[in-house]
Design a protein that fits this description.
single chain; 7-stranded parallel sheet
Amino acid sequence: RAIAATLADHARCKAFYVAYPEEGVALRQSLGPRAAEIFVFNGPAVDDLDLFKSSALTPVINSIHQARLWADACPQADAALHVDTGLNRLGLPADEISALPRLRLSSIISHLACASDPGNALNLDQRRRFEEAAARFPNVRRSLAASAGALIGTAFGFDQVRIGVGLFGASPFDDGSGGLLPAARLTAPVVQVKTVAAGQSIGYGATFTAAADTIVATVALGYGDGYPRSASGRGAAILNGRLAPILGRVSMDLIVLCAAPGGVAIGDRAEFFGGALPIETAAAAAGLIPYELLTAIGGLSRPAQGVGARVRRRYLWNGAPVDVGGG
């Protein structure tokens, strides 16, 4: 919500996409009187119609069933049409367009299956199918590309691009390229520094044994905060400018790092991804992609404040703190 409000105020963004109508309601409350369209990717259901109406949400129509539901319930309200061009997830098959009821369409969208691989032939094939479908709606705004599609080339841009992971400076490509500057940074404080003697093990399961006396820093972060347990013994952090490998298993609330002699103190912050350690590198060490790491940290379903809010989010715009407005 804080990100959306900042984008609306500073970047003049006027369209936002969410997965669920409940997210759209929260976003509408955060945006307040700002003129902004809020699209709901998963479309309408009978139980959600009141949310769409009360918060002026625009459904993305993915099927004939949804189209008929919306046409009956809100015939004068805008909708977006999602045409499936090859992803075979959500979206109306192109051969069912002729069966659509009368809708007031503001947009037609689709989604690329292989945009993370710019050279994949399916990208061009999907663009062709999308152009054919969009031609049936000549006065409707067109949107095909998310972050990866937007970086493939201007031919995929059409009237609107739906930037997601790119907002955080993470590469949407399989090879980690893209030239984006990091915008998200995860740090955690050191809560203890000690020396583990040679032959002693570290962490649950005793999966790491020190070959020599080793200075370690215990950091207040774990899988309870969304940092993956799969990074155990594989991941690392940057601690006072030096790479500090994770020793042993990531536990629920704590991680043990290998520290440099004399180079760490309680209260120092270890960076687990950001400008010093690319998120692509951190994610790969855990067997993940950047999308998974970003959505796991703090948990998308967790509140921003209060009980259960284990990760404190700080927002900056051009280096200055942003008023999160309670979001």
